[in-house]
């Protein structure tokens, strides 16, 4: 039988536990990526050529580091960060430990999305703000963030969806969550019911996130 409903019901406690671990991983890593990635994206933008805090050297070095981290496949990054993970959380397995590598992967990803969103802001508005004597902080707070907020929300949506995919991969090395459940039961035990259930759960999560993100982005976009 391809899908055994009774077996699915019996596995619900494990499925709910895995679902909770996935939410924990995503919640921790998303919070860290927003706290660090948002200002990082702003810095990448305002220090670029033609902007009010332009600094070619600083922007180049920062951009290189961001691109370097983004170019490393997540599964390799996950393993490479085991020593750092051990130092920070005292372990290399479990959802909290997996959140370290998830955060490192998500920060540069979100930062670039923030930078891209700000590049869509009308340069004339920025120049007008400079002309009336606005400080860099005022331009960022009163012009860039309000004008780019719709794109930033879309960036948050894309980041969460990427974290869902990354968290599933973290299950390969004992990160917990839906991916871990799929590997331990669906793959190693050839359990089609669990494999199908985990895939459906991930699809539903991604669809809900995408629809919610699109709705919020449209609601706050006043253009």
From TrEMBL:
Q: Which InterPro entries match?
A: AA_ABC_Transporter_Permease, MetI-like, MetI-like_sf
**Where is it predominantly found?**
membrane
Query: What stretches pass through the bilayer?
Result: 23-45, 57-81, 93-114, 151-173, 193-213
Signal peptide location in the record? none
Domain ABC transmembrane type-1: from-to ranges: 19-213
Q: Which GO terms describe its biological process?
A: D-methionine transmembrane transport
Q: Which domain of life is it from?
A: Bacteria
Alphabetical UniProt keywords: Cell membrane, Membrane, Transmembrane, Transmembrane helix, Transport
- Kindly list the places in or outside the cell where this protein is found, as annotated in its UniProt entry: Cell membrane
Question: Which topology term describes how it sits in the membrane?
Answer: Multi-pass membrane protein
Keyword Protein biosynthesis included in the entry's annotation:
no
An annotated GO cellular component of this protein is:
plasma membrane
Q: Which SUPFAM superfamilies does the record match to this protein?
A: MetI-like
* Similarity comment: Belongs to the binding-protein-dependent transport system permease family. CysTW subfamily.
PANTHER family (UniProt xref): ABC TRANSPORTER PERMEASE (PTHR30450), D-METHIONINE TRANSPORT SYSTEM PERMEASE PROTEIN METI-RELATED (PTHR30450:SF1)
UniProt-recorded name of the protein: Methionine ABC transporter permease
Q: What is the lineage of its organism?
A: Bacteria, Bacillati, Bacillota, Bacilli, Bacillales
